Structures are given as structure tokens and as C-alpha cells.
Amino acid sequence: MIDHSIDKNGVRVVNKKRPVNLDIATISMPVTAIVSILHRVTGVILFVGLAFLFYAFDLSLDSQEGFDQVVNALQTSFIAKFIIWGVVSALMYHFVAGIKHLFMDIGYFEELESGQMAAKANLVIAAILILVVGVWIW
Amino acid sequence: MVTQITSFGRSGLYDWMVQRVSAIVLSLYTVFILGYLVMNPELTYDQWSALFEATWMRIFTLMTLLSIGVHSWIGLWSISTDYLKATGVRFFFQSLCGLAMFVYITWGIQVLWGL
């Protein structure tokens, strides 16, 4: 329930002093909350992972040698494969959760049942994409 | 209560909209690049560099770089205002994020229009 108060001009405004609890340790985590926090976590991972993507992007366009180095690393190095898989997996999850978010913006999946269903679908679709990306890389 | 002073557009509604517009650019670029790589398993350097020499691709990529900047700013701003309550710590975190975004955008422009 949203708290309202009346300001000095007699306009009803949302009370900005309403209590907020963002302590993750004390919040119960239903599937919808897990999907939401993973959207944030993958966003942070992507921001850090971008450094690797920019590095590979730079090297791949620098010269024929640089391009070969990137291709070679992605074909032979376990660490390079693992990093790119991790970053692309975060991207896949963030992408699916973002699309779910856009659907919610236009009014879908807002009820308890449909919201939980969409959250579960989000997890399943992202897991499938992450597996497919893994197969593609290895 | 954390104030709005460091939000991207100084208005929640504006940030809300920018976040969605940039998200659409980023998702189109993601689909394009992944699709391109999947459809060109034998990609060569000449093909790859020709792609990024095309004007439309430079426009699309620059648009994506700027979208990365605003999208990650709004996202990390939201996260930091939720979890980092001490003003100094939050300011430090947001400064680091801002610096990293600036580096990413500049780096990307340099790769695209490199010497």
C-alpha cells in the first residue's frame, strides 16, 4: 500500500518517508525475487566483463596478427573460453530478464501466478541459451 | 534517503525511459553480432575489418557504445543507491563506475576510428 500525504498546496503526494527495507539478508526470496536479483548481478558481471570484450574487440581489429591471436585463444585456451562463456552467459540472462521487464512495463505478468510463471520461464530460457552458448564455444 | 543528485537525467521518469531505449539498442546489437558470428564460422580478418569500416556499422556501434554508457550508469546508480548507504562510499563507487564507462566509450571510439 502506498502512503500518501497532502502537501502545502493541497496536492496528494506519495510520502517519501515511507519505510524501505533493502537488507537482502532479511528479505524472503521467492522465484520472482531471485530472477530480479540475478538481473542485477548479471548487470554488474557484464560491466566488469566488458573489459575482456573491449580487449578482444581492440585486438581483433588491430591487425591480422591480433585477429589470429583472438581466434586462436578462443579455440585453444580454456581460460579464454571460460571467460567468454561467462560473459556471454551473463548477457543471455540479462537479455532474457530485460525482455521480461519490457513485457511487465506494458502490463503483462504482473499478477502473482503469471509473474511466477514468467520468472520460471526466464530461468529456463536463460539456462537453455547458456547451454547452447557453451556448446557453441566448446 | 538518497537524493537524486547523481541520477542520469535528474528525473526518475527520464532515467526509466533512457534505460529502456538503450536496452533496445543493446539487444539489437547483441542479436546482430551473435547472429553474424554464428553465420560466419570461418570469419576472416578482412571480412571482420570490412564490417567495421562500413559507415552504418560504425553508427550502429557508436550508438551501442553510448547505450552501454547510459544503461550501465542508470543500472549501477540504482544498485549503489539501494545498497551503499554511506555517502562517501557510494560517491567513490559511482566515480569508479563513471570513470570505467568513460574509458569504455573512449576505447571503443579509438578502436572504431583508430589511427
Task: Name the descriptors.
heterodimer; A: 138 residues; mainly alpha; two-stranded antiparallel sheet; 4 helices; 2 strands; B: 115 residues; elongated
Task: Write up this protein.
By secondary structure, chain A is mostly helical. Chain A is 72% helix and 4% strand. Chain A contains four helices and two strands, in the order E-E-H-H-H-H. Chain A has a two-stranded antiparallel ribbon with strand order 1-2. In chain A, helix 2 crosses helix 3 (78-105) and helix 3 (78-105) packs antiparallel against helix 4 (112-137). The model of chain A has no long low-confidence stretch (mean pLDDT 90). With 115 residues, chain B is an all-alpha fold. Chain B is elongated and about 50 Å long. The interface between A and B is medium-sized, with 29 and 27 residues.
Task: Give a summary of the structure in a few sentences.
The complex is a heterodimer of chains A (138) and B (115). Chain A is mainly α. Chain A is built from 4 helices and 2 strands.
Topology (elements, then pairings):
The complex is a heterodimer of chains A (138) and B (115).
Chain A: E1 4-6, E2 12-14, H1 31-62, H2 64-76, H3 78-105, H4 112-137
Antiparallel strand pairs in A: 1-2
Helix pairs in contact in A: 1-2, 1-3, 2-3, 3-4
Chain B: H1 12-39, H2 45-53, H3 55-83, H4 87-112
Helix pairs in contact in B: 1-3, 3-4
